Amino acid sequence: MFLLADAFRQHLVTFLAVSGSLLAAVFVFLLIQRGLDEWRFRRRMRLTRRFQPLVDALLTPEPEAHAYRRLVEEGRPHAPELAGLLLRPLGVATGALVANIRRAAHDLGLVERWTLHLGHRQWWERAEAARALGLVRERAAVAALLRALEDDHEEVRAAAVEALGAIGDVQAVPVLLASLRDESRHQRARVVEALRGFGEAVMPALLGHVREHPDEREMAAELVGLIGGTGGLGDLLAWSGDDRPSVRASVMRALAVLGLDDRAYYYVLRALRDPEPEVRAMAARTLGRSGRREATAELAPLMNDQWLVAAHAAAALKSLGVAGLARLAAFRDAPGQAGDLARQMLWERETLQDGALSA
Amino acid sequence: MLRDTVARALVYFDLGVLAYFLAINTLYLVFSVVAYLHLRQHRKRWTARELGAVVRSPATPGISVVAPAYNEEATVEESLRSLLLLNYPQFEVVLVNDGSKDRTLQVVIDKFELVRAPAAYAEPLPTQPVRGVYRSLANRDLVVIDKQNGGKADAINAGVNAARFPLVCVIDADSLLEDHALTRAVLPFIEDPDTVAAGGIVRIANGCTVERGRVTDVTLPTSALARFQVVEYLRAFLAGRVAQSAANALLIISGAFGIFKRDALLAIGGFNHDTIGEDMELVTRLHRVYRERQQRYRIVFQPDPVCWTEAPESRTVLARQRNRWQRGTLQVLSYHRHMLFNPRYGVVGLFAMPYYLLFEALGPVIEMAGYVVTFVAIPLGLLDVRFAQLLFLSAVMYGTMISLLSVVLEEISFRRYLRVSDLLTMVLFGFLENFGYRQLTTWWRLQGVVDFLRGKQGWGAMTRKGFAQA
Model-level pTM? Predict the structure, then answer.
């Protein structure tokens, strides 16, 4: 038995020694790998400490010539590492400050490098380049960025859209509008965000585009709402008669943001009698946000409509002050859905008031 | 004469214990190798581009995320906002207020513009009465079910009843899911339509920085107990579950994060109310029902959708948790005992369940008996000291190697801990784990076995410290 135990122990020790050594070798390899990563990180930190004051000097309308020269001359060998440092303030910087950084990026050879990298074989390099060109608002790169909208990789397309939005060159608007057809929901959202950045300047191109592509009215209506202003109101009201309920609902959502003048108010009242519940619900929501107390008489009958419509009508009445609350109070003792909704809204209102009082 | 007989019996007993330790550690060695190959293949298969395609595809199935909540007034708003921001093309969040005694429901009503809606759905799973269904006017992807208290399993079943998508994701209300957790967890269902359930990895959030319900900086906890658990979880998930999943022999999908086909849940009657280990019981029942019906099915562990959770840092709470897990395992094995060693249940009956019986259910008894007998018998001269050396080699040294192997597996596959100091700390705790911590958990598990035999029920309170906010 002991002989067996001895032999067993010998084999186990050998096995553990060999596998332990192998494991130790793997650890050493992993530690070397980690060490290299750490070394790169520390080098980046060192460069940051050295160049950060010089980059900060660019963030004044008229940077010191001496600091600028030092940055360009001493920074050239470390240009790729400096890119991050230059780009960091661009999320918030505007006007002359952006121009300063763009000039430095040009002199460091970074703009040329980024433009070249738009054709890099690795997608993340392409995406990074597009993002950087957008941040420095490099108008010369607009054509290349428009081509990047056709990239296979969504990240690159996303970066290109954001870059074009940041540069704000109106020649990009038609292509951006065409990108509203991108298969990715996220990409479409980014295009909307980029177009929103153009402000009312985008409106003529947007409305022209939708006249040619009526199938994009739904997205366009949302866009008009997001951009704000009254430039698109006429078209928006015309689209409220579209055959597609989703377009009509989208128009109502946009009107809720834009606010209602007398003409728009009339269109929203008409939408309360739309055959589609989604549209009626959105119209009720819009009236709730309009602050027009006279709408309460039109909203009250909807309390017996389908649940979605009734819920939005009840919420709208709750937000329309004393007149709305009086309408809700009339349903307080009613049986069924209307009574349930009215009681809940009144309870919420009272709870909120109690909360406000106790606060 | 009697002394010789006792000594001989002790030698045989000790050899049995040695065989046990060798078997469990060798099994984990095999698990680690299988897991490594599987993880490598998984990473090659699912590139960022492929994941992007899943997000874009109109065929990607919708998911109803069911989050049971009981007295979560303080955290429910942030948890819900974080869930509603998950990156997935089509999903809804079904929050089930399980008869909370605090203001959980009122907080949600106020913050998310909830309106009471008619409960226009069938209730195939029996639950405690539903008091109301609320829909949000602010966010159409949020549904709140208010019901009478019935426990976690009952709340999940109520959520499954209300779910309108074909897949149901069950999470704990205090779990933190990563942005792409749903996209990654849905992959097995897209890859193979026979998949009925998939679980993600659960990692320990203690020590990490949490911003708006997302873990933004991954660091090791400062508490030694939590650090041991980090290594323990890596071994259990990265080595154990990846390998068991490769053999379609996975018996547990953590209750903190799992996705199930709604039809499959309805077909087996949902979660069981009467067990403490409801997550393991459900998965075992899925295996049982599908194998009895001779239907093709897959239950999969996905190593990369991450769910972060808070681990206990006090010995009392950890002891309670391990005691409960042990009782849960024993309860499930006892419920489904006829599956054990039954060839009708294939790899589950012949490998997974015997594995759980021997190494999980009886493990603490064998381990503790081995330690006690060896260290009592040697001073009494009943056992040769060489057996103690062998026990040390096969239990402690071999175990240490396995713990370190799981740290290597993490480092070469996911490398979530970016600081070198964290890696070295994990190595240190992987080494130390077998010198005290493992024996301590064995003791708690042994108490769980005793409590199970005494018929003790109940969860015991779990005190949580909360996540560190940025």
Answer: 0.70
